[in-house]
Amino acid sequence: METRTQSLLDRVSPERRAEVEERVETLLSELTLEQKVGQLNQLNADFSTGTAVGDMDVERGILDGDIGSVLNFTDLEEARRFQELAVEESDHGIPLVLALDVIHGHRTIFPIPLGEAASWNPEMAELSARVAATEAAASGVQWTFAPSVDVSRDARWGRVMEAAGEDPYLAGEFSKARVRGFQGDDLAADDTILACAKHFVGYGAVEAGREYNTVDVSETALREVHLPPFEACLEAGVGSVMNAFNLHERIPASSNETLVAGLLRDELDFEGLVVSDWDSFGELVEHGVAGDLRDAARACIEAGSDVDMVSGAYATELVELVEDGVVEESLVDRAVRRLLTVKAVLGLFEDPYRYFDEERRSRRTLTDDHREAAREVAGESQVLLKNEDDLLPLNDGGDVALVGGLADSATDMLGAWHAVGDPADVTTLKTTLTDRVENLTYAEGCDRDGSVGDEQLEAAVKAVAAADVAVVAVGERYDQSGEAASRAHLDLPGDQRALLEALVGTGTPVAAVLFNGRPLAIDWEAEHVPAILEAWFPGVEAGPAIVDVLLGEHDPSGRLPMSFPVTEGQIPVYYNRLRTGRPAEDADADLTRPPANPGEKYTSRYLDVPNDPLYAFGHGESYTAFAYTGVTLGAAAITAGESLAVDVTVENVGDRAGTEVVQVYLRDVVGSRARPVRELVRFENVDLDAGESATVSFELTTADLEFWTADEAYAAEPGEFEVQVGHAADDVTAVETFELVE
């Protein structure tokens, strides 16, 4: 698989490139060793996004030339003051790069990235990132530490909310869309910011889903699962990459020469900036691979990592390492050159104050257009998990009971990593339903943490019993997912299941709305609650977007980017698994029951739960129904270098308009390494009126057939392949075969 990496300098004109390179080399020749090392030191300005690593006077450090970039500021005047100190009062006069984690919106907060991925529409991610960049750039931000492109199959890990789920292809499509949205066509424009693909690499595979835990992945898994989204970002021209916290082959990613210098730099030809994660250089000591910060600094600079986020390893140790002859100064020059190139491409040398304009910030922040975009993305991100007896959409004129503290919790709608999002900007589900449903009764039922008091329960049961239908908001608080928010148990927190049991027991039909940052284990709810709408943490337009779906004004078109387990004991559970030597699906056994005979027992199965997830990757229902009435391939056989046309005819066989996500999977029947049962290779959203049909055309290339072979190279091996088309990974409705021939 050849990655066509695009560098920052590839994105500018030849004339501009020559100017940048000349400026950078001139500056580099004028800096002292101490000043060069200072450029590689990144300090924290305000709130912490990691453990404390010691205090430093940021303003004094800027004046002394000891800081090249600053993260975590929210005050525009403070940021301008930092820049003034660097440009006007420090000896070298080099501007700072100012950074902030802008993950799913700056002030206008969009759905969490996992929710955006549920839209299966990368245009939504690009729109979200474009709005975020516009607002952030108007607020002094020049660099965001996003997108997170970690592929994860473990919902216990809180950071699944930051990325696009379990599939490398879907993650790649969303990751490069976010890079395009953040960086735009011109990084010197006043509405773009530098993107950062993170965390390189394999961080999504932390053992037991526990944050900062060990990672142990094979080379094949690294190449086929965890690397592709990074390659997509490199092809989109991402300007920076962040080291992961984890080990790879028991060497921390930040100091891993095989990963950084070998894979990222040499093999993938990445010339951009590599920044540590929070104190990840210093954590080499905790990992037991460095005796002290001196050892850590040496290892990281030699591996090819450039900027030290807050650990102080470079700032305190690099000068002496060079002077002692342990580290070559050329390695420092190489890292500083990359950072100065970023600053030049951002246009900071021409105008270091271009990001500090109060009037522009006011004009570009939380605009009507931005809120409308947030509503659109939130609308497309919702997934209808279940809709028994067509309970949804709600009927006009009925008495509706709304229950749940999350229904009116503005704070939780923002989700984790919400930058400078303000709960005062949020329109909640309760607010919108009150405005748009005439006969509405609200009962809190439970607090936002899931606790249920006797009086709350009594009032909720009374309200639901008197209603025609109940809408019940349940799920997690926003801080129960995200970084450092791993959960061993994935059921509804607190007493929310007991609340649902009582409400379902009234006999009134119940529709549950889920707010959460990860897949949940909701087997009881899936069996007993008639309708379940997955809303994730939807952002500032939570209420309008959800009510649009509840009332049928927007068809629920979202599909799951990550499987929902029946129980935590199944994890990791994901669709693109490998077959075993004793596949349970070949045993003709009912896996929902204990095995009845040896033929059923001695297979790859559980005794007490099914193998399959509760809701599979790609799952999502609609208010209408779709059928695939034809799948044709352009040829029965192709050779290397040829492409294959795949035509899929889909029909809306229901009685209302809707959106189907056509999903195309591929299976390599026999390979030199075992191959997954299916792998997503293409998808497309198709809008169809009732009774309407359309033919969607895809083109597969030899690159889609490649994998990391037994020869330890990407290649497409001759043989038989299946094209599988369907509604979800567990709902394939058509299979056609072709052959790759020599």
From TrEMBL:
EC number(s) per entry: 3.2.1.21
Segments forming domain Fibronectin type III-like: 660-729
Matching Gene3D superfamilies: Glycoside hydrolase family 3 C-terminal domain, Glycoside hydrolase, family 3, N-terminal domain, Immunoglobulins
Listed InterPro entries: Cellulose_Degrad_GH3, Fn3-like, GH, Glyco_hydro_3_C, Glyco_hydro_3_C_sf, Glyco_hydro_3_N, Glyco_hydro_3_N_sf, Ig-like_fold
Reaction(s) catalysed (UniProt annotation): Hydrolysis of terminal, non-reducing beta-D-glucosyl residues with release of beta-D-glucose
Pfam families xref list: Fn3-like, Glyco_hydro_3, Glyco_hydro_3_C
Origin: domain of life: Archaea
Record keywords: Glycosidase, Hydrolase, Signal
Gene Ontology MF terms: hydrolase activity
Protein family per UniProt: Belongs to the glycosyl hydrolase 3 family.
PANTHER family from the UniProt entry: LYSOSOMAL BETA GLUCOSIDASE, PERIPLASMIC BETA-GLUCOSIDASE-RELATED
Name of the molecule in the record: beta-glucosidase
Organism: Halogeometricum salsisoli
Highest classification ranks of the organism: Archaea, Methanobacteriati, Methanobacteriota, Stenosarchaea group, Halobacteria
